[in-house]
From TrEMBL:
GO terms for molecular function: heme binding; iron ion binding; oxidoreductase activity, acting on paired donors, with incorporation or reduction of molecular oxygen, reduced flavin or flavoprotein as one donor, and incorporation of one atom of oxygen. Belongs to the cytochrome P450 family. PANTHER family: P450, PUTATIVE (EUROFUNG)-RELATED. This is Cytochrome P450. The keyword Zinc does not apply. The keyword Oxidoreductase applies.
Length: 314
């Protein structure tokens, strides 16, 4: 933590401007903001709640149990993620995610993070070289499931998010774990979905509590996290057992991602943890991106011809 004079010196050296915009609050310590955010998550109004943040200013200061900042400014985001990456750390956010995810790119800093990122980068580069053919059967399944849901709906209205989650889970496990999640019995798939959704929901609340995450550990949270970790361990052990039996070359043809993780870590638990971090990115983040894309596309009408040409060219 920087002292006030150190903070000012850092800002001056890097051309930082003061953040003047703040979110108004009524209760002491801005606890009313925390409560509104707490209520928005289970009510599925988080996007609506966050939109109010975005409408205030590109970068705002927020004082909820301490001072923090929220930014959608491209320059600030670029600085955090790339140009000034070494100036930032996970901080207290690590505490909220560690129980579910363990060690990986979303809970690490410094050299450990760079090591994890490099291993993942190699694998995603390999996937780009393989092309998009692997996505075709899963896209077909997604379209079929949406069509069936539309036929079965009395109003013709379909909630796309569950279908997106199923699609992104199938693609992530197939491309990175070596076989699709759908290869497991339906009961196991249902158990994973319930455990993962519950554990992710609680972890999201713990993230918002920052250094007070330890306070919120409801009954069933650890059990749900354990169920998710056991599921990931199943895929890790299956691939590594196959490698021990058939050799690295044969295993790499089917389980390239897991084998590469093993070569970089030589620890089954760390391999499992990395799989969970990729699962979060591949399932939740991608599904939310698909939902967000459909949300904002109608507002991009003037840009549709350009977007269409760009999509076709790629």
């Amino acid at each position: 933590m920087l002292l006030p004079q150190e903070d000012e010196a850092f800002a001056s050296a890097h051309g930082c401007q003061p953040v003047l915009a703040t979110l108004p609050y009524r209760w002491p310590f801005a606890l009313d903001l925390l409560k509104r955010q707490w209520d928005a998550l289970p009510a599925k109004r988080l996007l609506e709640f966050q939109t109010a943040y975005m409408a205030t200013a590109p970068t705002i200061r927020i004082n909820v149990l301490g001072e923090g900042y929220i930014t959608t400014d491209p320059g600030n985001i670029e600085a955090v993620l790339t140009t000034r990456f070494d100036d930032f750390v996970m901080g207290v956010r690590r505490l909220g995610l560690l129980t579910l995810l363990g060690e990986g790119v979303f809970t690490q800093d410094g050299s450990a993070w760079k090591h994890s990122r490099e291993i993942l980068r190699r694998q995603f580069a390999r996937l780009r070289e393989d092309g998009l053919a692997a996505f075709t059967p899963h896209v077909d399944d997604l379209l079929d499931s949406v069509a069936r849901a539309s036929d079965e709906s009395a109003t013709g209205i379909v909630d796309l998010q569950p279908h997106f989650f199923e699609y992104t889970l199938a693609t992530t496990t197939d491309l990175l774990f070596g076989e699709p999640h759908s290869s497991l019995p339906q009961a196991d798939r249902d158990a994973l979905r319930d455990n993962f959704d519950y554990a992710s929901h609680i972890s999201a609340i713990r993230l918002r509590l920052a250094e007070f995450a330890w306070i919120y550990r409801p009954r069933g949270y650890r059990e749900a996290c354990r169920g998710v970790r056991q599921w990931a361990q199943f895929f890790a052990d299956k691939a590594l057992d196959y490698m021990e039996e058939h050799g690295e070359e044969a295993a790499s043809e089917r389980y390239a991602f897991i084998v590469d993780l093993w070569k970089g870590m030589h620890d089954r638990q760390l391999v499992r943890d990395q799989l969970l971090h990729v699962l979060i990115a591949g399932r939740d983040t991608t599904a939310c991106l698909l939902s967000w894309t459909l949300q904002v596309t109608p507002s991009l009408s003037p840009h549709k011809p350009k977007l269409t040409r760009s999509t076709v060219s790629t």
